Amino acid sequence: MLDVGDKVSARKLTTISGADVTVPSPDTTVHLQFRRFAGCPICNLHMRDVARRHQEIGDAGVLEVVVFHSTEDELRKYQAELPFAVVADPDRKLYKEFGVESSIRSVLHPRAWRAGAKGMRWTTASGALGLGEGHLGKPADFLIGADGTVRARKYGLHADDQWSVDEILQLAVR
Question: Model's pTM, two decimal places?
Answer without folding.
Answer: 0.82
